[in-house]
Amino acid sequence: MASTSSVNLGKERMRPSKVKGVDEGLLTSFKQARALGASINEPIVMEKAVELGKELGINFVPCSGWLGRCKRRQRIVFKVVSREAASVDMSTVDTWRVSALQQLLENYNADDIFNADQMGVFYKCLTDKTLDFKGNVCSGKKQTKYRLTVLVAANMSGSEKLPLLIIGKSAKPHCYNTKKLPVEYAVNKKV
């Protein structure tokens, strides 16, 4: 009887692809696209697989199971293209939150404490995630600068929510009538 001490029972066996030509063509296309810095997501890979199947005369309809196995065989993973590094020491933030913030909030009613935050809506922008090979450093191209800035604000109790404030570049956008929208619209040429 063979010893099972050196066998990894939790490891799946790597099955060869049933559509090897599609896999090989996909890997070549993938390498070329990543070399150019293109962001690649799963729907793009699936569409390319269908296209390659047609070129090879195969009626191939990829599914998520096939895609998962293909990614494992080729050691491809989904990554975030870039991220801002954390620049604040969290222990300092936690100390301030426990001591100073609590003392400030004691003097006010929850209805009188508001929180506001801004977010950018990049409406002509590619995703910041892509498929890439394990171990590769992931970098991308500059993103488009078409954006709207949205300000969201509400009080602590949730009883009052201010209308959204949208800031855009165009004084009179052609796509909608800003006077009839349920939001406030402002213009800033630098947005």
UniProtKB/TrEMBL annotation:
GO cellular component: nucleus
Keyword Transmembrane helix recorded: no
Organism: Plakobranchus ocellatus
Lineage of the species this protein comes from: Eukaryota, Metazoa, Spiralia, Lophotrochozoa, Mollusca
SUPFAM superfamilies: Homeodomain-like
Superkingdom as given in the UniProt entry: Eukaryota
Domain HTH CENPB-type: 10-80
GO molecular function list: DNA binding
InterPro entries: CenT-Element_Derived, DDE_SF_endonuclease_dom, Homeodomain-like_sf, HTH_CenpB_DNA-bd_dom
Residue ranges that the Swiss-Prot or TrEMBL entry lists as coiled coil: none
Keywords of this entry: DNA-binding
A Pfam match: HTH_Tnp_Tc5
Transmembrane segments: none
Transport found in the keyword field: no
Protein name: Tigger transposable element-derived protein 6
